[in-house]
Amino acid sequence: MPERRTKRKVDNNNNNNSNSNSNSNNSSNHSNNSNSSSHSNNNNNNNNEQAEDKEQEALLMATSSNIYLELVELSGHVLARGAWSATLRANCLYQSAHLAKPGRRCRLLQGTREITPFTPLAALDLSLGTCIQVVWLSSLAANNFLHCNAFAAIKANGSVVTWGSADHGGDSSAVAPLLAEGIVQVCGTISAFAAIKANGSVVTWGNAFSGGNSSAVAPLLAEGVVQVRGTGRAFAAIKANGSVVTWGNAFSGGNSSAVAPLLAEGVVQVVELAVPLRPSRRTAV
Q1: I need a surface site. Which of 50, 115, 142, 170 has the fewest CB within 10 A?
Q2: pTM for this entry
Q3: Where is this region: Disordered (predicted)?
């Protein structure tokens, strides 16, 4: 009898161990199934998030086909604002500016960067904002008031070619490397030239007494210049911060030290006093 009880007890223990192992396996299987289900749910969530991201990207691409911009003068006056197709070039912006002031020439700047009519709108750096600065240049008629014996031509690649009297700026060999590219405007006095580059710097050449030598104010002309005007023998440059820099013959406006504090900021336009050429006299027959 004691032997049978012992055997039954052993059998019961074996059965209990077997049931425990079975329960453990079942629990493990349930845990694996739960993990698998959770992993599957995570994958589904990731797929859904990726799909949503793709939809948002598609929406951004659809809205980025148009670029919102404002054309603003140095005075702060808004000439035009609206959305232009990103597939266009900046010529459309120049056309909008010219509608405001027909017959006037201008430069467009984004920060200190020059925007040419050939610049793709898609290449504009929108992190700098939507404001495009419009700088009006000297009218062609104003140049007819000054007598000069030399010419300066700007080419499509931004280089400058000069010819005529060497003493009047026709020889620009001394600054030729600086005129090889990036020139956006050239202005003249009676015997000197000043050129603005796309980076906002100024290059001068010609008769030193007529503004051809700007070394005295060179640090002020190294950047930020948006417009240059000339009298008979002096130049005045407007900078993007609204200040004015002058050089050349003092009697022709080259020395502005007396009003320097008033020209330190807020200037939006400089107008020169030009005297028309007298018609040549003909001897009466």
Answers
A1: 50
A2: 0.60
A3: 1-53
